[in-house]
Design goal:
This protein is mainly α. The protein is built from five helices and no strands.
């Protein structure tokens, strides 16, 4: 289970980081950056034992990476958002099967919790 979580965290973080860098450093619109990351992330081959979960985590991470650069001031904060997102992904693995919006909801909740925590503690 720890290996599964680490793979989820790595995939979520890579999607989040790539999308964030594309729209902050290269000035791509956030929606275009997320769709490029999601598109290329869907073609990465993973072992059949992991099913499509790493690809979905990359896509969810790209949604979280769409957040504003005024909210994120360091890559450590992206790591924390990715940690929250990976935890939510693993915890809701068997929930909402067959319903749309799960990946976007995970990204939204992880960024919202981070924003609330940052506003309370900073």
């Amino acid at each position: 289970m720890l290996k599964f979580f680490f793979i989820k965290f790595s995939a979520f973080f890579s999607g989040c980081l790539l999308c964030f860098v594309m729209h902050t450093e290269f000035n791509l619109p956030a929606v275009i950056a997320a769709s490029v990351v999601g598109l290329f992330g869907s073609f990465i081959p993973f072992p059949k034992s992991l099913n499509i979960h790493p690809n979905a985590a990359i896509y969810a991470g790209s949604f979280a990476g769409m957040c504003s650069s005024s909210l994120i001031s360091s890559y450590w904060e992206l790591g924390f958002i990715s940690l929250l997102g990976a935890c939510l992904y693993v915890l809701t693995l068997n929930l909402f099967s067959g319903f749309g919006g799960k990946l976007g909801s995970i990204a939204f909740v992880s960024v919202a919790v981070f924003a609330l925590a940052k506003g309370v503690f900073v």
